[in-house]
Amino acid sequence: MSLSSWTSRKVFRIAQVNTVGLREKLAISPRDAALDGLRALAILRVITWHTSGWAWTTWIISSVPAMFVVTGALLARSLQKASAFHTLRKRFKRLFLPLWFYSLTVYLLSLLFEVRTSAVWTFFFPFSQPSSLIASQWFTSAMWYLRAYVWVLVLSPFIYALTRRFKSLIPVVGIIAVIALGIWEIDSTGFGWAVGDIVLYSTCTAAGMAWLVHGRPSPQSLHVTAFAFLAGACSWLLFRQPIDGVVNNDHVLHLFVGGFWTALLLHFPMTLSSFSTTAVSRFLNRYPLSIYLWHSMTAWFFWQLVPNAIPTNARVLLIVALTFLALPVVTYLIGLFEHREEGWFTLLHVSPRIILVLAILLAINVGPLSRSIDFVRTPLNQPLPPSAAPTVVKIEIEDDVKKFLDSSAFKDDTWSIRETEMQSILDKRTQEMGLGKARAIVATRDGRIWHGISGNMRTFDQPSLIGSLTKTFTTTLIMQLVDEGLISLDDSVGGMGMGFKHGQITIRQLLTHTSGLAKYKSKSGYVAKGTTPMDVLSYVSEQPLRSPPGSYVDYSTSGFSLLGLILEQKTGKTFEELLRSRITDALGYELSTFRGDYGSIGFSTGGIIMTMDDLADWTRRYFFDRSTTKETWDWAMRTTTGVGTHGYCPCRNKSFLALGHIGGRTFASVDGDGTVVIIDTTGILVLDNYKKTQTFAQELRLVAGGGKKYLYP
Q1: CA angle, corner 353, sides to 350 and 359, nearest 5?
Q2: Alpha helices of 444-574 — where are they, by DSSP H?
Q3: Cα separations (Å) of 663 from 182, 285, 463, 469, 477?
Q4: What is the pLDDT of residues 668-689, one digit of tens each?
Q5: Mean of pLDDT values over 208-223
Q6: 379: which strand partners?
Q7: Could you give the maximum distance between any two Cα atoms of the chain, in Å?
Q8: Whole-prediction pTM value?
């Protein structure tokens, strides 16, 4: 064979190979600029919602489903070009370094301020959501997205293999699964909520893989899809409303609203593509992870620093604007971890960033800014931390209780059998929680009542100190005077003529535990026998405020003692006389009162002794009927963060199924079914037993046939 012949054949073979490679490359659609525009819009909306706390913004675009749809399309194209191992390695390589830097920052802050965190591994390998109480959970609440993203990445090769084989069937099956979990309420909280997250966003990822990997669907397909998801959202809203009006708090609604907006926006590919070329979009798409991780922390600082004097809506808009303006500075400081070019970690690149970080740290720790920042307490002047899931106290019903609830004995609705089960729960929980002795009452709305005693506890004809449950009576008396026009919630204490030095504090702030008053204590650290309300008034009047009035929720026994004095000053009667003449005599309650005894101030903050049957009746009237004042109460103060007028309450974020209060050793609550639970012990129900107490009460409610509805839907 001649040299020229051999050369010609070789060139032909090379050309054949190149042609095959070219065909393979052409088979993979080029990157769709419209998807970059869609993702940038989604990120903008996420920042706006997390910064403002405005629930209505979650109905616009519904960002997270859209982001996972885009993620699915991009992952599918990566998996077409390379192996699953190479694709995931590249993704995790880009994810872990910025995540670890952020997580280390948050974890060290948590250690510095001695706040509770989840296990350290969750911060660095977030297969379970990392959490910390630092900054009222603002720094970790949005990290649920990272948990969902990590799981979707791990599952992506399997999702891709299934969508290649079964195409549209996979997202359809996923949609059915999301709806089924929602209907059966399997995804309502805890582990079930995490599973619901993974199923929902895996479904969105599968949709991106099936419908966008080879180019956008036809306009007709998008029309049908948008209409179907809109119809699904409307139908679901007839079935169930999302908690707090936040779309993200319901997986099924999030799916439908997210699907609708994604299909709708893809109707305008030219607009999305044009937006993707803007400086804003290029910035958001260059640093999506850094922006997501750090924007909540950035917003939190501005919520601390921007003055309260600015009108609320203007203040929110200002904070949103400042957050957006600060993000380029944030990405300048830490964007190197996400977008790592060759030679990124050099003295030339790192040193100016270190200097800027030190300057920021100095500013927030020294001088006027430092007095405005509190990493531990929750200011009232900012929204709740951003989160995809409703905050629900984790109630873990015992397996034996679950078995009873599934049994024919429970379904037969024989009250005597249910009483036996409630007694078993009472005995078991009393021992497990170290309560010593206990008694409980469960009263259903249809009039069935159970009384149970565990150990050598006092009988039900003997009264107990109800502790801080006294505050519900004090609140009622105050609100009755408000009804009658004798006082206003916004009256300042300085105008009451009691010589109180912190005159700017209002009655509303005393009721909602936002006065900032010092905590009363004697030299020994305990309340001395014989302590009078005037002793408390004199002490807290001389002490500096713990925080500016109206800024933080800080449970205040001193504040309610002051409310008792205001009642006496305004009516000319003692608190005890008011209590009997306005409430207890008319209701036929047997009670006694005390001041300065039992190591307690007593009086209007914790000075009532009454029977548990009377307390059960009061609990229904106060928390369920809301009839203890002239008008059925719907007081604005019930939107406090919980440790307020109405006790450890879910009225703002529906943390529990019931509304009630713990008086140290006595617990009273009622749920949306009208089931009253009273627990009275010789042990402590708060502190370490707080969550267990909620479970204890919920088990009793469930066995009695309640425990299924929120008190305020």
Answers
A1: 140
A2: 470-483, 507-511, 533-542, 557-571
A3: 36, 52, 14, 5, 19
A4: 988 888 899 999 999 988 878 8
A5: 86
A6: 552
A7: 123
A8: 0.67
